[in-house]
Design a protein that fits this description.
heterodimer, A: 9 helices, 21 strands, B: about 280 residues, mainly alpha, MetI-like fold
C-alpha cells in the first residue's frame, strides 16, 4: 500500500494530490502538463515535495513535518523512464546490472542476476548488445528488466509505451501486462492514453492540472466518469442534473410528483431548466446528494439539427409526456470525421450545457451542419441495438 | 518574376558563401603555407639536432604536458560543479574561469608575478620556505596552466551539460551514489569532451608565449619554450626561428587533426559540446 499526500509548486504549476494505492497496477491518466511525471519524480525521490508525506507498506519515505526525505537510493523503487533511458555506452547486461552494482553487488553476481532478468523479458541472448542495436520495443523490455532486477516494492513507469510505433505498442503492451500482473509491488504507470490506462491499470487515477479527479477501479471509471475530460474519451456527455422522479420497473412511483406509467423504468431529470426523461442506465450512481445527479449521455443519443436562431423558442416543457422533446441550444465549434471512412462525424457544440454528438455525415450535410451554425440538441433514447 | 528573383537571390547567396570561404581560407592558409613551404624537409631534420632547437622542444613538451595534467586535475572538479550545481557567486566563478581567455597574456603573466613573485602575496610565504617560483620551469608550467584552463573547463563543462538529464535521473533512481554516477555514467558519456578539453588545453599550453615570458623569463633550457625561442631566434637566426615555427605548426596541426579523427570513436551518446559543432546525440 502506497499512501501519499503531496504538494509541489513548480513555476506557475502546482500539484496537490492525496493517494492510497494498494498493490497492483495503477494507471495514472492525464494529458500532458497534468503533473504525471512530476508525481512520479516526487514518489521516486528525484524531486522534493514542498509539503507532504509518503509511506510505502507503512515505511516512511518522506515527511515534510519530520524533515525526513529518503534519497532515491534508499527507496525500494523501480524506475522506467520514458523511452527506456538505457545507458548508451553500456551493454544490455551492464545496463540491467547497473542498479545491483551501484548497491555493491559483485560484478559476476550482478551480471548473473541481470541474465535471469533479461531471460524473463525474453531477451536472454541480447546481453552483449548495445542499446542502439535494439528496437524500441526491445529497449523498453530491457528497461523493465533493469527496474525489476532490483525487486522494487514501488515500480514507477513513465509513459512506457509512448515512444513505440503502433505494432510494437500492441505487443509490448501485452508483455507489460503479463510482467506486471505477477508483481508483488505497487506499480504506478503514467500514461496520456486512455486505452493504455484501461488495459494496464486495475486501478485508475485521473490527474487533471495537478489534481486527482478520479481514483478508483477500472469499473468505477467506466461506470462513473467524474469529469468532462474522462467522459469525452469514454464517449459520453457528462451532464449535471437534478433528479425529478424515478420510477423503477415494478411501477411503484417514488417520485416527488406522481408521474410515470408503464412497465419500463423511467428517470426524469432536470437539466439546465429543461425536464427530460432519460433511460435509468444513464444515471451515474455516485452522487452525494439524492437530488443532484450526473448522467452520462452517449454521443449517438444526442440528436442535432440546424436552427434559424430567430425562430427558436426555448421550450420549457413541464409535462412528463413531452419531456423527451426538451431542446437545448448550441453552436457548432468542432467537426471531426470518424474512422474508418468518415461516414460518421463527431460534432462538438458550445452552449449550456456543451454537447458532443455523433451523426452520419450524409445527414449532417443534408441539414447543413457546419462550424459556426446554431443548432438545437435533443436527447433521444437510443434504439435497442443488438450487441 | 518571382522565380527569377529567387534564382538571383540564391545565386547571390552562393556567391556570398564562396567569397567568405575563400577570404578566410586565404587569411589563414596563405601565411601558414608560406611558413611551411619555406623549409626543406631535410633541413628540418638536420636542424632538429641543434641544441638550441632541441632544448626548446624538450622544454616545451615537458612543460605543456605538465600544465595539461595540472589543468585536468583542478579543472575537472570545477567543470563538474559548474555543470551540475547552482551556488551563490557562480557567475563570478564563471567570469574568473573565462578571463584568461580574453586577457592579454602579458597581463596574466604580470598578475602571476605579482601574486607568486618573491615580493608577491603568496610568493612571500613561499619564499619563507626557500621556494622561489619566478624564472623557473615550474613557473612556465603555471603560466601555461593559467592560460589553458579556460579552454579545458569550457569544453568539459559543455560535455557534462549535454548529457541527457533523464539518463542521470535513471542512474540516481537505480541506486547510484553521486560518485558512482560520475564514474559509470557522467565520465564515460562526457569522454569525447574530456578528450577535446585535454587536447585543446595542451595545444594552448604549447603555444603560450606572453604569460611565460613575463612570469618565467627567457632562460635557455629552463624557461625558454619553443614560442620564446622563435621570438629570440627571429632577431639573430631567422632560419632557426622558421624551423621551430614549422615544428610547432606541424605538431599542433597533427594534434587537432588526430582529435577530430578520434572523436567519432568516442561517441557513445552525448556530443562533444559546442566547440566541435552540434552534438551528435542519438535520436
Amino acid at each position: 500500500m502506497l499512501q501519499a499526500t503531496l504538494a509541489k509548486q513548480i513555476g506557475g504549476f502546482d500539484l496537490d494530490v492525496a493517494l492510497r494505492i494498494p498493490r497492483g497496477v495503477c494507471a495514472v491518466l492525464g494529458e500532458s502538463g497534468a503533473g504525471k511525471s512530476t508525481l512520479l519524480r516526487l514518489l521516486g525521490g528525484l524531486a522534493r515535495p514542498d509539503t507532504g508525506r509518503i509511506t510505502l507498506d507503512g515505511e516512511l519515505l518522506f515527511d515534510s513535518g519530520a524533515r525526513i526525505c529518503r534519497a532515491p537510493r534508499a527507496r525500494p523503487i523501480g524506475w522506467m523512464p520514458q523511452d527506456g533511458g538505457l545507458f548508451p555506452h553500456l551493454a544490455v547486461d551492464e545496463n540491467v546490472a547497473f542498479g545491483l552494482r551501484a548497491l555493491g553487488v559483485p560484478r559476476a553476481e550482478a551480471l548473473a542476476r541481470a541474465g535471469v532478468a533479461l531471460d524473463r523479458v525474453g531477451l536472454a541472448r541480447f546481453g552483449n548488445r548495445r542499446p542502439r542495436d535494439l528496437s524500441g520495443g526491445e529497449q523498453q523490455r530491457v528497461a523493465l528488466a533493469r527496474a525489476l532486477v532490483l525487486e522494487p516494492r514501488l515500480l514507477l513507469l513513465d509513459e512506457p509505451l509512448a515512444a513505440l510505433d503502433y505494432e510494437t505498442h500492441r505487443s509490448v503492451r501485452k508483455e507489460l501486462r503479463a510482467a506486471l500482473s505477477s508483481l508483488e509491488a505497487v506499480t504506478l504507470l503514467v500514461t496520456h492514453n486512455p486505452t493504455e490506462a484501461l488495459l494496464l491499470g486495475d486501478r485508475i487515477v485521473v490527474l487533471e492540472r495537478g489534481r486527482v479527479t478520479h481514483d478508483g477501479s477500472r469499473e468505477d471509471l467506466l461506470r462513473a466518469p467524474k469529469t468532462p475530460f474522462v467522459a469525452e474519451f469514454l464517449g459520453v456527455n457528462l451532464l449535471e442534473a437534478r433528479r425529478v422522479s424515478w420510477t423503477p420497473a415494478d411501477g411503484a412511483d417514488r417520485a416527488v410528483g406522481a408521474v410515470g406509467q408503464g412497465s419500463c423504468a423511467q428517470l426524469i431529470v432536470e437539466i439546465e431548466g429543461r425536464t427530460v426523461r432519460v433511460p435509468p442506465s444513464w444515471l451515474l450512481e455516485d452522487s452525494d446528494s439524492p437530488s443532484r445527479v450526473r448522467i452520462a449521455v452517449p454521443l449517438r443519443s444526442v440528436a442535432i439539427e440546424r436552427v434559424e436562431i430567430q425562430r427558436v423558442e426555448i421550450q420549457r416543457v413541464a409535462t412528463p409526456a413531452a419531456a423527451q422533446t426538451a431542446v437545448f441550444l448550441g453552436t457548432i465549434d468542432e467537426v471531426l470525421p470518424l474512422p474508418p471512412d468518415g461516414s460518421w462525424l463527431r460534432i462538438h457544440t458550445v452552449g449550456t450545457p456543451s454537447f458532443t454528438a455523433e451523426i452520419e455525415a450524409a445527414r449532417a450535410a443534408k441539414s447543413g451542419l457546419a462550424i459556426g451554425e446554431a443548432v438545437s440538441l435533443r436527447l433521444t433514447t437510443p434504439p435497442a441495438q443488438p450487441s | 518574376m518571382t522565380a527569377r528573383r529567387d534564382t538571383l537571390s540564391s545565386l547571390a547567396w552562393r556567391v556570398g558563401l564562396a567569397l567568405g570561404g575563400t577570404g578566410l581560407l586565404l587569411l589563414l592558409g596563405l601565411p601558414l603555407a608560406a611558413l611551411a613551404l619555406r623549409v626543406r624537409p631535410t633541413e628540418l631534420i638536420t636542424r632538429l639536432a641543434d641544441p638550441f632547437v632541441l632544448d626548446a622542444l624538450r622544454l616545451s613538451l615537458l612543460t605543456s604536458l605538465g600544465a595539461t595534467v595540472l589543468v585536468t586535475l583542478v579543472g575537472l572538479p570545477v567543470a563538474y560543479l559548474l555543470a551540475t550545481r547552482a551556488f551563490p557567486g557562480k557567475r563570478w566563478l564563471e567570469v574568473l574561469v573565462d578571463l584568461p581567455m580574453v586577457l592579454p597574456p602579458t597581463v596574466s603573466g604580470l598578475a602571476l608575478l605579482l601574486a607568486l613573485g618573491r615580493s608577491g602575496w603568496a610568493g612571500r610565504s613561499l619564499d619563507a620556505f626557500g621556494i622561489s617560483l619566478p624564472f623557473t620551469t615550474a613557473a612556465v608550467v603555471l603560466a601555461q596552466a593559467f592560460m589553458a584552463a579556460p579552454f579545458f573547463v569550457a569544453t568539459v563543462r559543455a560535455g557534462f551539460s549535454s548529457i541527457d538529464p533523464r539518463l542521470i535521473e535513471a542512474a540516481v533512481a537505480l541506486r547510484a551514489s553521486e560518485a558512482y554516477l560520475f564514474r559509470r555514467v557522467v565520465l564515460p558519456l562526457a569522454l569525447p569532451s574530456l578528450l577535446a578539453g585535454v587536447v585543446l588545453a595542451w595545444a594552448r599550453a604549447l603555444g603560450e608565449f606572453g604569460a611565460t615570458i613575463t612570469f618565467a623569463g627567457n632562460l635557455p633550457g629552463v624557461t625558454q619554450t619553443m614560442p620564446l625561442a622563435v621570438y629570440i631566434a627571429m632577431q639573430s637566426d631567422l632560419e632557426a626561428a622558421i624551423v621551430l615555427s614549422v615544428l610547432l605548426l606541424l605538431g599542433s596541426g597533427a594534434l587537432l587533426y588526430a582529435l577530430r579523427s578520434a572523436l567519432p570513436l568516442f561517441q557513445p551518446g552525448a556530443g562533444a559540446g559546442w566547440f566541435f559543432g552540434p552534438s551528435r546525440r542519438r535520436s
